[in-house]
Design brief:
The protein is an alpha/beta fold and about 325 residues long. It has 2 domains: about 30-120 and about 250-320, D-Maltodextrin-Binding Protein, domain 2 (3-Layer(aba) Sandwich); about 125-245, Periplasmic binding protein-like II (D-Maltodextrin-Binding Protein, domain 2). About 40% of the residues lie in helices and about 20% in strands. It is built from 11 helices and 10 strands. It has helices spanning about 15-20, 40-55, 70-80, 95-100, 140-145, 160-175, 185-195, 205-215, 260-275, 280-290, 295-320; strands at about 30-35, 60-65, 85-90, 115-130, 150-155, 180, 200-205, 220, 250-255, 290-295. β5, α6 and β6 form a beta-alpha-beta unit. α2 packs antiparallel against α10, α4 runs parallel beside α11 and α6 crosses α11 (about 295-320). It is globular.
Length: about 325
């Protein structure tokens, strides 16, 4: 964790000490930058966490949505703020890890530019198929896919997203011919999938679950090693040997600046651990389709490093570029 830097020499400190005296943190509202729009899943988690932290810190935590460039503009806004503990970021794998890999000319930052405070919530992605695809599970899909003369079309919400990276993981694991079809609007993906205009889609569970329950699409796997509580009957894809390396969880985590006072970051980590046990928070998480996580400080940092290295290998092999 970062340590407090000595700002003055010993000889000058007695003269300047009164001017440097600060009130205990926080003594004013705290801003939580969310690099995505209001109303989405990331924003939902941010508002649950901000409400609880406001009570715990005794100061309002204000959510500030800063959209654009796949999360990069909001991330830049956070990184330019003073490292005084009054600007935090609710980040996800796409803007923190994936964007620097696939958009290096736009996302001019690295994992070391963030101080990991707490991994707050996670969820897997779903692998959905058109309703008339002649396969009902991963093995059947693989057998069908190997017989196709043309590439299998799979849709995601855009080039260079974490969903796209998972699609590339599946392609690399199975050696299937697969063609990425990027969309700008998730609702259009589901409409085209239900109408059998595309073969496959990779999306978060909350968006596809209603179509699945109505029988308008199939879901053959989830991208985590454990079932998704929202669709527990769907098997985890990484447990199938043919898809073992195609594993991904999307997540929401809280970040500060590496140069922020270590005591502030440590307190935030403790508060995040505690708020994750609040029944009201857990209820809201369930409604959002996410699962509470419990990684802070060094454990969160190690998780990020491992995921970043794994994603980087997939991006290099697949030559994924968002620009």
């Amino acid at each position: 964790m970062p340590t407090r830097r000595t700002a003055l020499t010993l000889g000058l400190a007695p003269l300047a000490a009164p001017a440097l005296a600060q009130a205990p943190w926080p003594n004013k509202p705290v801003t939580m930058v969310v690099p995505y729009g209001a109303g989405g899943n990331v924003d939902g988690v941010a508002r649950v966490v901000a409400a609880s932290l406001s009570t715990r810190l005794g100061q309002q935590v204000v959510v500030e949505n800063v959209t654009g460039a796949g999360g990069v503009i909001g991330t830049d806004r956070f990184l330019r703020a003073a490292p005084d503990g009054y600007t935090l970021m609710l980040g996800v794998e796409s803007n923190v890890m994936v964007a620097p890999l696939v958009s290096p000319n736009t996302a001019r930052y690295a994992l070391t530019d963030f101080a990991p405070i707490a991994l707050l919530a996670t969820q897997p992605l779903t692998i959905a198929t058109r309703p008339d695809l002649p396969a009902n599970d991963l093995d059947g899909f693989l057998a069908w896919g190997r017989q196709q003369p043309n590439p299998i079309t799979y849709a995601t919400s855009g080039i260079g997203t974490s969903l796209h990276v998972l699609g590339e993981m599946i392609r690399q694991a199975t050696n299937l011919q697969m063609e990425h079809v990027p969309y700008r609007v998730g609702a259009n993906i589901l409409a085209d999938l239900a109408a059998s205009r595309i073969d496959l889609a990779i999306l978060p569970t909350p968006s596809v679950a209603p179509f699945f329950r109505e029988g308008r699409i199939k879901i053959i796997g989830v991208s985590s090693r454990t079932p998704d509580p929202a669709i527990p009957q769907v098997p985890p894809m990484p447990l199938n040997p043919a898809f073992a390396s195609a594993e991904m969880i999307v997540w929401q985590g809280l970040f500060g600046h590496p140069r922020t006072d270590a005591a502030i970051l440590s307190r935030l980590s403790r508060e995040c651990q505690e708020l994750g046990r609040e029944p009201a928070v857990l209820t809201r998480y369930e409604a959002l389709g996410v699962t509470r996580a419990d990684l802070t400080d060094g454990a969160f940092a190690r998780f990020l490093q491992g995921e970043s290295e794994r994603f980087a290998a997939v991006v290099r092999t697949g030559n994924i570029r968002a620009e």
